[in-house]
## 1
Amino acid sequence: MRSIPTLLLASLAVTTAWAQGSNPAASRATHTVAGAASGRIAFVHAEVIPMDRERVLHDYTVVVDGGTITAVGPSASVRVPAGVERVDARGRYLMPALADMHVHLLDDAWKMMLTPEAKAASAVIPDEAFLLPYLANGVTAVQVLSANAYDLALRERIRRGEVLGPRMILAPMVDGPDRAWPPPISTWVATPAAAAAAVRRMKAEGYDKIKAYSFLSREQYDSIVVAAREQHMDVIGHVPYALSVEEVVAAGQRYISHSEEIAKHAATYDSATIDRYATLLVKNGVWMSPTLVTTHAFLDLFDDPGSVGRRPEAEYFRHPMQAGVWGFLLDSLYLKIPASGRRSIRDGYEQFQLAFTRVFARKGGKLLAGSDTPLPGLVPGFALHRELRELVNVGLTPYQALQSATTGPAEYLGERDRRGIVATGQATDLVLLTANPLADIAAASTVDGLLMRGQWLPGEELRRRMRATVASARTP
Ligand SMILES: [Zn+2]
């Protein structure tokens, strides 16, 4: 996410106290929606895309017991035990479910951006209204790059089965004070000691990784790196302006959350520069989310501020809070960017980010698909598919694009032995598609069922929930 200009901070800060004082979990009704994993299910006669290499296994059967795959083989030879629920998957494609490794949750913290009227109208936004679109799009894991207390509590409620939602990897955002996103979206640290203390507190509270943001000083950043190493946490995120790309790589930063971050630090956009940065990151095993879709949304909004609201998926993003956040960010950030700034964002995208992503992938760079939802134009779940299409447009094969949302995240999370591919012994979530995404990446969005943590959600059930919970939570 880009930063809110400093001049906006005064208005945002006024409402920050409200957001900090809220108790996210306490006011919610508690009801079980996820239920226990029904246990055993078999997908019979499926076209299986295992993602171990580029291939489709014709007429295969996959048996899953309590979330773990217990058998994969030709339908003629795999015996489905009695009592196992059978899903006839003939003509449909079964593959690992997807992960979006750069998201923000439309949680309580974002309410600071709403007008008082909008805030009153959306006192209780259903969590499902911003979580279900992930599932309906086959996304069962997200890395949250501005995680806060609300998200910690929400993750717990998902674990307990009270809310249906994806698995969450939570990374709070740490930044220098008074510069960009106000608390609790971000955590501001004024000194190196405060930065180290924040990292230790975040570890103790249960967060997974630390996201460094743009306005950290060199001393603050270094302090975060040392403290995170002590706490066995990865430092991920932006490349602070105070440092170079080379310096964050040398510091061991594990992941860079936008290709735009490299563009910002590049003096020129020629092919030698692009090659040099791609080589540096590949050689050091740094993970990268190109987030082309994030920059593309800016360009579409510059061309026509109403365009992203007319995207088909905006149908699922009409809750007053969702509309209010988009409206605020459009009016106070996106559309305030002067012509010169718009020009440099466009140049960065067209002359650097696209080529960089292509070269990085060609060199074997470690890609993680990420969307930066819910920034304007970016609807949870749907935006990941836009990013996959962007990756194919710059020259990746559909298989490579899908790796960035399946095996890539599993490797990044150190879980490749149990997640990311369809194979016996894997605990990977599965998605059923009506068309072959290896032939056309657009088919990755034809979700017709999801097996998440052992729970089977047929396509009609996902669509019913989307209509009932998401489409109905709209601006009057
Ligand atoms: Zn972001």
## 2
Amino acid sequence: MKIEKWAIVPKTAPEIIRNCPGCRRKTAFHSSESFRINANGNKIDVWLIYRCEKCNFSWNLDIYTRISPGFLDRRLYERFQRNDRTTALEYGCCKEILSRNKAEALWEQVEYDVEITKLPLLQTQLSQKQYKKTQISPTECGQEFIKEKVLVAIYNQYGLSLRLDKLLCSHFGWSRKEAVKMEEEGFLRILSGGKGCKAKIPKFMEIEIYES
Ligand SMILES: [Zn+2]
């Protein structure tokens, strides 16, 4: 049995649809991955700068407004100062901040990478009981299955809007129909987290797959 950790990492923050004063219509704004910091007396503002994809007009996503310097962790402040790419991605994907800014984010169009780490068994959160349960073959008809079982822990920490079947199809080269069949026949099982193959992937879920 193999154990893998899949981390779904967006390539960019979602684009934001808004009225562009330069274009005089709604356009898509992308994150410039640069922060703007305004330190005024003892208050600090931090924004993430977005730009219209058509005319480059800039728009600032409010991250912190008039906070006292002591409120900000020094290391985080330094990351803002040097436009740290991961920090820009984290803030550009923060649903709470996007909704506070009334930003209409195009989550569906975000491209992502899947970073795969192979784990030794002891590192997983599977209980002994779950482990035993997974030893049972999905069919009882006495056929020989030379399929290898893989336990996959999926981390969707940026909360991408992505269905499990879409992820699996792009990884294994299955069709949607094949994914449904795998689930129906017990070769794909949800161990924790998600609701099913056609449901969106939550922040964390565990699945079991019999690889052919
Ligand atoms: Zn524009």
## 3
Amino acid sequence: MIALPDFPWDRLAPYKELAQAHADGIADLSVGTPVDPVPAVARKALAAAADSPGYPQTHGTARLREAAAGWLRRRHGVTVDPADVLPTIGSKELVAWLPTLLGAGRGDRVVIPELAYPTYDVGARLAGAEPYAVDGLVAVGPERVPLVWVNSPSNPTGRVLPAEHLRKVVAWARERGAVVASDECYLELGWEDHPVSVLHPDVCGGSHEGILAVHSLSKRSNLAGYRAGFVAGDPVLVKRLLEVRKHAGMMVSAPVQAAMAAVLDDDEHADEQRGRYARRREVLRPALERAGWRIDHSTAGLYLWATDGTDCWDQVRGLAEKGILVAPGDFYGAAGRAHVRVALTATDERIDAVVRRLQ
Ligand SMILES: Cc1ncc(COP(=O)(O)O)c(C=O)c1O
């Protein structure tokens, strides 16, 4: 049996109950799940593709791959051949299985950020490999590792890795034959910083060798419920992933592929959603600061990484007593023990309730 960590959210259940007992109800800023409507452009495309009796293509339709390549070019200055795009069943699925799909296993260490989305760790374990949570690659020394994960903007900290930092990671990995997988699911949510893709020429020098960028439509287009993501990059690696995924039945349903293509072609709904998060962030951040919290990093992404200097679970309890549920920083690594992660994913009405309760 592979030893998996306890599912962390179960530990938050008593605080959820406490927050739910608030007279005006819970304001849940813990899980970063979208609460705004699925854009009309997605629903229309999904409905139009409802009559899909045949098996979908694991590689995705040409229409979808062209839309993904078009979006990367238009919004992020990245040029990829549509052949080097591969749809995934949301990005969590790929994060969890990438080490396995790449053939990592016993004796390998997969490098993950010190403060990170927990699924990088789980993915290493599912492959029988070991997660190695470290930010500075110097600490890895001469060891050969199969895979290095980066995540910018970061969940949970909202930190952005500048192009120069990413360039060094890519150079380091290429020297050692390691794959760099860059989780870019918050790439369009830059606030004070402008996030850059690992596939941008400023980072990779124009070659995608050894690099994969992982994207998600969950947050950009409120498609978390559809399970819609894709991976793009090194043609050889994408081909290898495609081969295994075909055998393993890891394919995105045809109606979801149609919805993905439609939202990737459309920026209007994404800008509108970005505006909603920007407004929520503008009221939540000063409200937390006035109430005694310091916000660290958080220059991009969907979260405020906040601390009042006490243990994260004391902060979780104090906020739950006000009916506000947040995630304790230690869910993301021991270095998060003095922080809480505050998600921007609540309705304007609930965000306003939080602001009132913090006064
Ligand atoms: C850093 C990061 N990667 C991946 C995911 C998974 O997203 P999805 O599976 O919805 O695409 C999340 C979800 O919150 C995340 O925060």
